[in-house]
Specification:
The complex is a heterodimer of chains A (437) and B (187).
Chain A (H helix, E strand, L loop, with lengths): L6 E2 L5 E6 L4 E8 L5 H14 L16 H11 L6 H7 L3 H14 L12 H22 L5 H11 L2 H10 L15 H19 L1 H12 L8 H60 L4 H33 L4 H10 L2 H11 L6 E8 L7 E8 L2 E8 L2 H17 L31
Antiparallel strand pairs in A: 1-3, 2-3, 4-5, 5-6
Helix pairs in contact in A: 3-8, 5-6, 5-8, 5-9, 6-10, 7-8, 8-9, 10-11, 10-12, 13-14
Chain B lengths: L9 E2 L16 E8 L7 H9 L1 H7 L4 E6 L6 E6 L4 E5 L5 H13 L7 E2 L32 H4 L8 H25 L1
The chains are: A mainly alpha (437), B alpha/beta (187).
């Protein structure tokens, strides 16, 4: 702690001018601080500023930390009761287990059974419980949704990112036993899955399912189901494409790299010749007009070459940025697909193919053009949507029609999470065999 | 709360992890009571510890309570929430009752920094009607119209304005007046 500053009004280093209405008074001010304090403090501050910011300190490193109390409070907060050793195991990461084992070996202590357990198996079991419950629940809550939709919503809800948010929301971050701090997304998600399994083991599978319903399924309240499905599908297509084209793109990239190197080499040679020419030109400038002409021609060629080289470089960079351009076309195909999907579905149900019709339009050809397109089948309106252009509106209308058939349109009532539901474990119809009508 | 709170951030109503839709989770996760065993500043905190802290911990099993005596320092209560926020409550010269009341405030709080709420309600789905189009609120009888329709192409009929009404009233009054004058004149 710095010594308290004392200010006294006589004799000193600094002089402060106090302005009064009537007169000017000079007051001398002095702080009885040793001379070395200020430079020392400023030097310390400068050094601190130079250093990297300190890594975040785990809460468990504080003096006021009682791990059993924290574990008890964690289960009590969620309204559950879990056996403490089981809970401890669910929160022990493999990295922490290995670390503590190494520490014991170093200290020459005997192997402890409690120290040789990590949450890997529990996490797998928890993941199974979670996935089967969520998909069963979704099948019974949304009976018209095809299996692909059920799967993608399930995988969205049990994704690492979502589980990480949930885990940090219920206070897992401080009590996870892991080597790293702050714990990564993966660690948090794994611990949450393991907690579900631990809950199932200590208080029965029903309690675990209720936990999943109350915490994981409750996320559905703010999620647009149709958007989730589309996003997941896009991602899956992207990842599939990425795997397929990884090999090809790597080869292509090598080839392009090689060509680039060749270009570079040629460029250097050109440059050298150019310089030599320059020199020669300087020497024989006055006398050799013919040479001059040749030189100019050469210059032109050189510049053209440079331009080509730059263009190539640009293409190469673009190529590197979007590793496979073909992925884009896939996405576009998927976005323009709904009408064909709808026509397939209608054909399977014995209905007439979808017929998009322009219902309303305003300001065609202007910046604020608006069209409303409805999709009809058997003279019945299946769905309608507005759009900037007729093609966009058609596509959105087909999508709206599909959503309505699935029972997840934006007009449908919110899902009741607390309602009694019997789980349906048999998979729903796949999109290729889906008959909603 | 008014717009005069210049230094207060604004925000919308929100609940962490959809709290309350499935199950309610109290957001205060632990408190650390720091106090002095001798100084009179900490009198209220000491009383609270003596009389109420055990009951408080029993009533709120989800909150971990730590007690940390520190010699000759002002008493504080550190409040830690589930969203990672920490708040330090100065308990200097607070009475036992006041401290308990402040803890009750913290117990019900979400841990988000105090902010001016822009609206008292919030929804992630602002409209179930979808995107607004020029035809969103068009009267439905236009659907049954046969074209060309006389009604549709007529200039819009407007109501009589107040001035016109007054003028008409005045004209009628004048007429009546004249009539009464005439009748009295003849009789």
């Amino acid at each position: 702690m710095a010594a308290p500053y004392i200010q006294i009004g006589f004799c000193g280093r600094s002089i402060v001018k106090l302005c009064n209405a009537s007169s000017t008074v000079f007051v001398a001010r002095r702080t009885f601080l040793p001379k070395h304090v200020r430079p020392t403090l400023s030097a310390i501050a400068a050094r601190k500023k130079k250093q990297k910011p300190a890594p975040p300190e785990p809460r468990s490193s504080y003096i006021e930390w009682n791990y059993p109390a924290e574990l008890f409070a964690f289960s009590a907060r969620l309204g559950e009761s879990v056996d403490e050793p089981l809970l401890r195991r669910a929160l022990t990461e493999r990295s922490h287990m290995l670390q503590s084992q190494a520490e014991r070996r170093r200290l020459g202590l005997p192997e402890n059974e409690a120290d040789s357990a990590s949450n890997t198996e529990l996490a797998e079991r928890g993941s199974d419980i979670m996935t089967s419950y969520i998909s069963g629940w979704l099948r019974s809550a949304l009976p018209l949704l095809p299996e692909e939709g059920v799967q993608s919503v399930t995988s969205y809800l049990t994704s690492q990112q979502e589980l990480n948010q949930l885990a940090s929301g219920i206070g897992l971050k401080d009590i996870v036993l892991s080597e790293e701090y702050p714990p990564s997304e993966e660690t948090m998600a794994r611990c949450l899955r393991a907690f579900v399994a631990a809950l199932a083991e200590s208080s029965g599978e029903e309690r675990a399912q209720l936990f999943v319903r109350d915490f994981v399924l409750a996320r559905l309240a703010t999620v647009d189901l149709t958007a989730v499905w589309q996003i997941e599908e896009l991602l899956s297509v992207l990842s599939c494409r990425a795997v397929c084209s990884a090999q090809m793109s790597r080869c292509l990239r090598c080839l392009m790299c090689l060509i680039r190197c060749l270009f570079c080499l040629t460029c250097c040679l050109f440059c050298l010749t150019y310089r030599l020419f320059c020199l020669t030109y300087c020497l024989f400038c006055l006398t050799y007009r013919l040479f001059c002409l040749t030189y100019r021609l050469f210059c032109l060629t050189y510049r053209l070459f440079c331009l080509t080289y730059r263009l190539f470089c640009l293409t190469y960079r673009l190529f590197c940025a979007h590793e496979s351009l073909s992925v884009l076309s896939d996405v576009l195909y998927l976005l323009s697909e709904p009408l064909s999907v709808l026509s397939d579905v209608l054909r399977r149900c014995g209905r007439e193919p979808p017929e998009p019709r322009l219902l309303r339009s305003a300001g065609p050809g202007s910046l604020l053009a608006a069209y409303v397109v409805g999709v009809y089948s058997d003279r019945k309106l299946m769905g309608y949507a507005p759009g900037d252009s007729v093609s966009e509106a058609t596509e959105l209308a087909a999508r709206a029609a599909l959503n309505q058939l699935m029972g997840v349109s934006e007009r449908s009532a919110p899902l009741d999470i607390r309602a009694e539901r019997t789980l349906r474990h048999a998979p729903a119809a796949a999109l290729a065999e889906w008959r909603p009508l | 709360m008014s717009f005069k709170h210049l230094f207060m951030k604004s925000s919308f109503v929100k609940a962490p992890i959809q709290n309350g839709i499935g199950r309610y989770v109290g957001q205060l996760q632990r408190i650390t009571v720091k106090f002095c065993k001798e100084h009179s500043d900490s009198k209220g905190v000491r009383d609270f510890i003596e009389n109420q802290v055990v009951d408080f911990a029993k009533q709120n099993p989800g909150i971990v309570v730590y007690l940390k005596p520190r010699r000759h320092r002002a008493p504080h209560v550190k409040l830690e929430y589930l969203n990672g926020e920490t708040e330090i409550l100065s308990a200097k010269c607070l009475s036992e009752r006041e401290l308990r009341q402040w803890l009750e405030v913290a117990r019900g709080s979400s841990g988000e920094p105090v902010a001016r709420l822009r609206k008292m309600q919030h929804t992630d789905r602002p409209s179930i009607q979808g995107v607004w189009t020029p035809w969103t609120n068009v009267p439905p009888q236009t659907n049954l119209e046969t074209f060309p329709s006389e009604e549709g192409y007529r200039a819009p009929q407007r109501e009589q304005t107040a001035t016109e009404k007054l003028r008409e009233l005045f004209a009628r009054q004048q007429e009546q007046k004249q009539l009464t004058e005439e009748t009295t004149g003849t009789s």
